[in-house]
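Two folds, back to back.
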Amino acid sequence: MGEVDPAFIQAIEHRPKIITGLEAGGIPLIDLSPLLSSDSLEGYSKDHPQAILDLVEEIKGACRDWGFFQVINHGVPYDLLRRLQTAAKEFFDLPLEEKRKVRRDEENPLGYYDTEHTKNVRDWKEVFDFVVDDPTVIPLSLEPDDHRVRVMNNQWPEYPSDLRELCEEYSRAVEKLAFNLLNLISLSLGLPAKRLNDFFKDQTSFIRLNHYPPCPTPHLALGVGRHKDAGALTVLATDDVGGLEVKRKTDGEWIRVKTIPESYIINVGDIIQVWSNDRYESVEHRVVVNSEKERFSIPFFFNPSHYQMVKPLEELVDEEKEPARYKEYSWGKFFSARKLSNFKKLTVENLQITDFKIAK
């Protein structure tokens, strides 16, 4: 990835500003330790310890005001993450021909890939994707009346030999954190803790190992172009090389997220925006690169089952005071359409939840 192909070059208005020191210190940092010492959020009420009540309010404010927050004391063993980061680096250090032995394609979008596009511009990165539940089922086609499905299976490289075991162990640990966060978000909306859990019975969640090599022209390219996450929640682990930028809701300014050791960066996805009927918003973000250091990150994309129809939750809709702001849509079809766009440059804008917005 030494030569800069024109496919990487962003339009002038979307190119990053190469400045230092502008970090999003205002992004909430939330301590989840009260959750770890609590037996369960089931039966949550005002009789819960004050620490739990305060935690729910912190989650509410973070989702409403930022759409992003960071968590510490989250319960995921740091040593497990460290070992997975080491194995990920060993994999990406392999010769290209070795990595391409597990290359993903349109038939099975799992495995290694180095030509992904965001907003029809190629990203300066290489990735390795695997699903949390193996196998995972998604729609075979995008046609609304086609109910056939296809099966996605993880594919694993021969080396590093421990990569599969580490990925599977890590996925279970982060999945537990994702459900805890989902329960807190549900409570923050005034719903029972486990109101949203059944949507994830046959989840389409996946984890990505990201590698962003040094870029000779960081002022022209992006590691990942501006986008919003299509799923419910994203739980991101990153190294100490900064790069994630969030578009601040108050003024539209791109703000660098400060990396905090042993923390996770959480963002609300499009599905929670729709479920909450716009009480919470999925926020645009991107990844900038630099010319000196490589960067690694590991996002967990928490997604419901392919057969779920996504629409505002009935408890949060009132036909007179708060009517539904979105028409329902098929998550499986939406997910498949977004996956397809990763493989080719489209002639039209990618599918967005705004396509299902109901005019006022």
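---
second:
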Amino acid sequence: MEKSMAINLLLFLCLIPFSFFVCNGVVIVPSYAAAAHRTLEHRGGALYETRYFMQTLDHFNYKPDGYMQFRQKYLVNDSFWEGGGAPIFVYAGNEGSIELFADNTGFMFDVAPSFKALLVFIEHRYYGESLPFGDVGNSSTLGYLSTTQALADFATLIIDLKKNLSSEHSPVVAFGGSYGGMLAAWFRLKYPHVVIGSVASSAPILQFDDLVSPYIFIDIVTNDFKSESESCFKTIKNSWNEMDDTLRQPGGPQKLAKAFKLCPGAIPESVPGWISSAFIYGAMTDYPTASNFLTPLPAFPVKQMCKAIDNPTAGNDTLSRLYAAMNIYYNYTGTESCFDLDSGSRIGFDSWDFQSCTEMILIEGGSRNESMFPAETYDYQEQLSYCKEAYKISPRPHWITTEFGGHDIKRVLKRFGSNIIFFNGLRDPWSGGGVLKSINPSLTAIVAPQGAHHVDLRFATEQDPVWLRKVRRKEIQIISKWLKQYYEDSKI
């Protein structure tokens, strides 16, 4: 089986019927979040306006080349903004085109009317259209791609935007999911004079060094499927050997291609890795409502994949059972007549691949004997060899914890950090590297046992379960406290 487990799969990535907004000591009870959608529809349905900012290439040296500028894309929605000191909510863009995250961060649109907030979504450098050298480039031009440069981009753009809007005193709250959630948390820690607080959803800021086990990611994926069905878990666990045996037999690759209805040109040897990706991404996006984030999916996709695998009409044919499950993940719309083994992800893998070879050395990829995947020992040397070959560089595995911390996080941040919400859903494989316990009264951990990858940031629906509504209610209450304190302090 190909080593698909070693790939960094950091991806990302809804309101409540009522909540509270505090402004100048007055408590306002806003209407249901659907009002935001109605207003946007009345204005033509546009969620945002596209703008560009001339960004500095290198914020951290004074060599002439570093003064070069590039167009950084950002999206704005001012439908509900009052201006003149009203809040600005900023999404810290992550590894992909910013539209992907704006379209899947409905929470910000849902709460904007209540807070009378301006919404800004900033694209991360080297993703989407924000390419300093016109394309992703090579290791020389990619050298300007880092978390610290990205955070400096966000700060520079926000300060300039507030000045141009004559709203220098507007409080800024940062939002982010997954890698964007990590950036949102680090943004608050590094630039407290720019952002008064951050909502860091599904942000695995502890997935570095030896802070967590390299096996915890796959452990959580395994538990997700095992909790749905023991027989589903066993079928998946036993399937890898069967697929490997099939591929080794004469005519085996052709048998696998037929079983999974591969498109002409698709490589049958890639099927096991393709299946692994579906199970992993399915666990990450195991939302309680239908979604269209990475790919169109039904509500509770893990449950649905296990139902397909356990379907008695499939008999004892393991490949048929797996094929049925893959149709849930890769062909829920029923429009695919064959599979080309493309994961369909809209993430910017080229740039992320480079980041995975520099500082974003996320500790994951190992699987235990008890796992639903083949046992595999975590091997950093394998990643090191790949990075040297691909980019002629060696990773800096300890840089993130050097730059942002992580070790003894409770002791370090107890008196230093403030105003960060860490949300984690325990069905999300990345929750193993998240902050699961509150550090102090304003560094708040919200944990949802039934939650998946940054589910709290998704658009509200009538079908949202009670627990999800409560999570969002709590987040709104905390943000309201931050803003109330800011406005009170501004009077001093």
